[in-house]
Every structure is written in C-alpha cells, then in structure tokens.
C-alpha cells in the first residue's frame, strides 16, 4: 500500500480550515451584536424601533450560527460516510463478474444502521490449485467485527496462492485469527489504559467455509461451523457432505483435516454460499425466512443468473423482515460456465477447451 502522509495531512488541514471558517463568520456576527447590546449608548434608549432592530439582529445572528453548526455537522457526516464506503469496498471488494470460467455475484446486508459491511466476509480467487472460495461470519456485527474480517480476509488472500492444500489455508487463517484476538485482548486489558475487555478471547469466534473447485467441477470443502451451501439448478438443493468442525477461535484445529467432497458442479449449475443471517432472519411474527424456497424461486429461470439470485433473495429478505435485520447477511453465487467442446485433431482425439 502506498502511504502519502503529506497529502493526508494537507487534506485534514483543509477540512479543519473549512469547518473553522464556516463557524467563524456567524460567531463574529453574534459577538458584534452582543457587544452592541452591552456597550452602545443608543441601545439603552427608549426608542422601540432601535430595540426591535437590535433584537432582530441578535435573532439573525443566533439562527445563522445554528445553521452553520448544523451544516458543518451534516457535511462532516457526509465525508465520514464517503470515507467509510471507500474503506468498506476495499475491505470487502465485490468479486469480478467472471473468474476462471465462473460467473459471480455477491451482496451483503448489514444489520448496523449506515454500514454496508459488518461481520460477514467472502472472497473468490483463481489459484494454481483451482478456484478457492472463503465465506465467513465473525461473531457480532458492525464496527467491532471489521478488524477480524480484515485479518481473516488478508490471510486468505495470501494463503490461497501459497498453500497447495486447502488444510494449509485453514491453518493459516486460524493462526492469523488467534494473533488478532491476542492483540485485541491486550488492547482492551486494564494495563493498556482501558477497562475490562469487552469480549474475552474465549467468546470470540469466526465461522469459516473454505471451498476448492477443481477443473473437473468437483467441489471440496473444509467447514468450521458455517452453513453449508446450496446447489442451484432449476431449484435449490442444500449440500450436507458431513459434520462441520468447531468455529475458529475457541478450540484448536484437529491434527487431521480431511477434505469433504460436496458435489460435482456441472456446466450451467451454480453454488450459493451464505451466512447464517439469511437462515435466522425472522418476521414480526417470529417466522424464519424460507431461504431454500427463495433460492429455488430465484434460480428457476434457466440459465441461473448469479446477479438475479442475489438481488431477488435480498429483496425477499427485506420484505420478510420489514427492513429490520437482526444479523448481517452475505450471499455469494458462482455459476459454472466451463464447457467441454470436442475439437477434431489429426490424432483423432478430442480436446477439452475452455476449462
């Protein structure tokens, strides 16, 4: 990352100067009016016109100052939101529309007001070992979870290319999270100047689903406490290849991490990964959101459109909950667009193209 401290300092100085100027003029006017009231001999006369004029000037000064304060606060809030949105897009960047023979779409809904990113995370990467995917959910939501999201995503983006085995990627994520939690606990410890830790280390955890999609379309997984994905092909089929491991954080990983084969994703079929906020969402009567039915409806038109699936499920979620989510929701859909095309050759053998 390129650091530009001089530019950052200049921008901060300019913003402070603009805010100070916006408040200085009405404040000076108010001071002048008060000084007139206290020192000018004419202000003490009995003339009604002069008194009315003085009161109006004072009222204008007060209203001007109040409006300046409100405008400065609103402008500052807009700038903070713009910076937050840019930071969030960098942290949880949207996947490209196409990647190594897959059509992709993703979306997230945050339970925190004014935020577009919470405790959910996802990433898709093309690596020498196949297309690798991570979907995770940090305990809690909002700003407190963003640090863990950044740590896990940063570790995955490196380990996905470095580790030949998916188990190695998971162990890297586990070590990174443990280091992050230790540093966070040290920061919240009374010796660091704060109060009691908000969240002890034992209560922090992250659910993680790691997928590796081979060129043949076979999907292998390592799951630490995360919901299993759905396969979409004119409907929605939940995949349950085995029991998941415990979430990362509270317990060490076992010595052996065998891969689980989820399915074979044929050309035109899609996978939908999601966080538990989609399954746990409730309406005003306490009824859970019917995720499988919503996915089946969105996937019914052929071919499956990843963007349509994400958008329709999100709209259905907001309708079901009345726009009041209790947890963050993330969705990631991958459609296999790899095809096998027989090509004539002198040796009479067919070659596979497009994989």
What would you note in describing this structure?
The structure is a single chain. The protein is of the alpha+beta class. It has helices at residues 5-39, 48-91, 143-162, 166-188, 276-280, 291-299, 306-321; strands spanning 98-99, 102-109, 120-127, 130-138, 206-213, 218-224, 230-232, 236-238, 260-264, 270-274, 329-336. The model is unreliable at 1-12 and 341-355 (pLDDT under 50).
In CATH, the topology of the largest domain is named Phosphatase 2c, domain 1
- Helices, by number, come to 7
Query: Span between N and C termini?
Result: 34 Å
CATH superfamily of the largest domain: PPM-type phosphatase domain
The CATH class of the largest domain, by name, is: Alpha Beta
Strand content: 15-25%
Quantity of strands, as a count: 11
Largest sheet: 6 strands, antiparallel
Q: Please tell me what the overall shape is.
A: elongated
Gyration radius, to the nearest Å?
Answer: 28 Å
Q: Name the average pLDDT.
A: 79
Based on the coordinates given, report the CATH architecture of the largest domain. Answer: 4-Layer Sandwich
Question: Concise description?
Answer:
The protein is an alpha+beta fold and 355 residues long.
Topology (SSEs and partners):
Elements: H1 5-39, H2 48-91, E1 98-99, E2 102-109, E3 120-127, E4 130-138, H3 143-162, H4 166-188, E5 206-213, E6 218-224, E7 230-232, E8 236-238, E9 260-264, E10 270-274, H5 276-280, H6 291-299, H7 306-321, E11 329-336
Antiparallel strand pairs: 1-2, 2-11, 3-4, 4-5, 5-6, 6-9, 7-8, 7-10, 10-11
Helix pairs in contact: 1-2, 3-4, 6-7
